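PT: before anyone asks, these are the final sequences, not the draft ones from last week. 211 residues across everything. Please model them as a single complex and drop the result in this thread when it's through.
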Amino acid sequence: MRQRKIKNVDEKLAKFEYMIVSEPSRHKGKWHEIFDGEGELFLEIGCGKGRFIRGMSKKFPSDRFLAVEGQSSVLLRALERSENEELSNVKFIASYISDITDTFEEGELGGIYLNFSDPWPKERHAKRRLTHRSKLKQYVKLISPKGFVQFKTDNDSLFQFTLDEIEALGLEIIQMTGDLHNSPLADDNIMTEYEEKFSSKGKNINYVKFR
Ligand SMILES: C[S@@+](CC[C@H](N)C(=O)[O-])C[C@H]1O[C@@H](n2cnc3c(N)ncnc32)[C@H](O)[C@@H]1O
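LR: through. Structure below.
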């Protein structure tokens, strides 16, 4: 996500400490302790400026949401916007997550959201894609039996790559469309910043939910 470098970003982030989970791996298996309430825990990897996670947290106030963003300047925007809306069921992880099994126990997540993940188009970078099979294998271990992984992208090649990875692992596709905004799933859809940008230019949005 393109974002101008912000001066003194670390100092500015410190103001939002109460929304940021430091040392996330310490909470493995006991995430329920850091949130009030009993709802399920959902994770978004690469939340950008947080529009999606804010929308989800308002739509599902009894669930809990964790949003991970590695780029500090982008995360700062997500935090500022979340503060204005006083969301009590959202927390943020301020880092690029790599091995998520360090941070979550098997079955601990109700769902994982991947929205407009970086495409890493070069073949030699395929392993960096958040939907590479090595990562999908981890995600499906961490979701509960009724849990899911949901992926949206404007990038048709990354979408095809992801479908191939899902198939190679023999995972179950729950819902899929190559044109989310013109499908029955559009009513329940919460848009992200990237989604707004691409769909306003007429780009179809790809969507798959699987487990
Ligand atoms: C293309 S942007 C999309 C942002 C947002 N999801 C949206 O749809 O508007 C991808 C974001 O994911 C973040 N990101 C990529 N890999 C990540 C990782 N492993 N952990 C945390 N953030 C990551 C990037 O810093 C970037 O802000």
